[in-house]
């Protein structure tokens, strides 16, 4: 039996206040105390745009993990983790768009950061966003935060692993080295597991870590869920790169095919890629069931949303 | 009375095994588990080069802080902190050398990372090094590390602050915005306090944090020491940019003047800058005295080394 998911209306009702919290926190935190010439590109890169999928995964996973007994600090930890992972995501987009990488001029319907602030400004803003992600989770003024040091250290560990050479950055390096080459399905899967999947999976695991100690069964279930929707996300991304237009995507469509990048569509065909996304969704929902956690409806609904999205 | 410093021989005898430990740890850790195309530029950027001043400051500060009672985890924590701060330093050099920043082709007597591995490779390697700095301090497999979570969280907080928008990255942004403009001494000092000073100060504070709880007097003394030698380092850098040649420096000499960057030499003249370095050294040594810590001879000797260095 697959885990029960909320209807899209129920999901929307839950998402609205969660997104409002995240936006308010980002508005307050991003670039605070930075020199104006740095704060501006940092805020431009993060605020007023983005689906906030990773923060929502953190918050939904914290909700599920907290259903076995929510500690007092859960909300604070989850909000910091949610914003931290979003800053990592945002920095990766800034650097990814730069001329030496994808050389993209359009993101979320706006000029990319380097187009607006110059390459040096984009480079520094990305670097500072990565540092701030860790600052948010382990703030220097620790007395302001009720989150136990154990939870902070675990969140840092999960985020650093997901972002680094054995996660997102590692996947980007494989991607970079693979342009114009033919990857097999196993290699393509490994690249995406790292490039996009690692941070999505980290989001789910960070949400779970906010609750403190969790059973091994619950932890394993959430980890498997994160891995499956991490891959599903990328499969859908590859489908959308072919089927959607730039205006809907808010970024340049068709660029992967144009750059001769290996994609799931190139490998499996359009129908095959769609079937693969459905298979991964079923796998994600089965993992939620196996976690034994009570309150997984938000996570299940987000998984459906990831596969059904049109941008 | 100024704090007693080791002679240069005593310092060398202490440094030799410390540097060997740091090099061995970096050799083991940097880029481990990363795809080869990423591990290679990461390791090129870090290994086999560099004065390792920041790691030495961490280790010397841990020694001083541990002189009031060294906890069992002190050495492990200090080694991880030492390597973490060095990875942040290394990433900042990689990104700083890129064409959109200083466009430098020579570093530590070798071609810079982007010259050797391309701009995209340098960008990704720098990003991955920053993430790994935090991974080293808060490893995911926490059971392998005896360092208490409280110490891990504090080390992450200090490093993230020192590296980020209110630290190194903030100083670089001010630097970038100031090219061709005339900065007053206060503004120049603020830029350098962030750009170079913040990470050097963080090194000292991280070393102190490795010991766990420390008295406020000791903490304040070490912080003031770190701030003073952070500034002294940059003043000496500005002097060397004018007086040393590229072969000795292992990087391009005279580039600040050529880029019309504001420097202490431009502001105070060569003799004035040298006098300022001496004043800051005296200030640093006085702060060590005020810390009340017993074993500050290594820190004092490093401070002398910073001011007397020729590269």
From TrEMBL, chains A, B:
Keywords: Isoprene biosynthesis, Magnesium, Metal-binding, Transferase. InterPro entries: Isoprenoid_synthase_dom_sf, Polyprenyl_synt, Polyprenyl_synt_CS, Prenyl_diphosphate_synthase. The keyword Transferase applies. Transmembrane segments: none annotated. GO terms for biological process: terpenoid biosynthetic process. Pfam families: polyprenyl_synt (PF00348). GO terms for molecular function: metal ion binding; prenyltransferase activity. One of its GO terms (cellular component) is cytoplasm. Its cofactor is Mg(2+). Belongs to the FPP/GGPP synthase family. This is Farnesyl diphosphate synthase. It comes from Pseudacidovorax intermedius. The lineage of its organism: Bacteria, Pseudomonadati, Pseudomonadota, Betaproteobacteria, Burkholderiales.
């Amino acid at each position: 039996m697959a885990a029960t998911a909320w209807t899209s209306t129920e999901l929307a009702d839950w998402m609205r206040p969660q997104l409002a919290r995240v936006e308010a926190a980002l508005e307050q935190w991003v670039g605070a105390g930075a020199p104006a010439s740095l704060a501006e590109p940092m805020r431009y890169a993060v605020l007023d745009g983005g689906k906030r999928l990773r923060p929502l995964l953190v918050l939904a996973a914290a909700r599920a993990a907290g259903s076995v007994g929510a500690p007092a600090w859960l909300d604070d930890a989850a909000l910091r983790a949610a914003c931290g992972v979003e800053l990592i995501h945002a920095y990766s987009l800034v650097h990814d768009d730069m001329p030496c990488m994808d050389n993209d001029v359009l993101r979320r319907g706006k000029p990319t950061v380097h187009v607006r602030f110059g390459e040096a400004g984009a480079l520094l803003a990305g670097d500072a966003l990565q540092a701030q992600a860790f600052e948010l989770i382990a703030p220097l003024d620790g007395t302001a935060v009720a989150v136990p040091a154990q939870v902070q250290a675990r969140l840092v560990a999960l985020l650093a692993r997901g972002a680094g050479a054995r996660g997102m950055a590692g996947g980007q390096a494989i991607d970079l080295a693979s342009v114009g080459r033919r990857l097999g399905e196993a290699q393509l899967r490994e690249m995406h597991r790292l490039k996009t999947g690692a941070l999505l999976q980290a989001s789910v695991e960070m949400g779970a870590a906010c609750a403190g100690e969790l059973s091994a069964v619950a932890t394993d279930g959430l980890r498997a869920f994160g891995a499956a929707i991490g891959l599903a996300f990328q499969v859908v991304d590859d489908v959308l790169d072919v089927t959607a237009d730039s205006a809907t995507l808010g970024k340049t469509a068709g660029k992967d095919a144009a750059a001769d990048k290996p994609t799931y569509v190139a490998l499996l065909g359009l129908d095959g890629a769609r079937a693969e996304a459905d298979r991964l969704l079923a796998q994600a929902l089965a993992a939620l069931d196996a976690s034994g956690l009570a309150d997984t409806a938000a996570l299940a609904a987000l998984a459906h949303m990831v596969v059904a999205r049109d941008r």
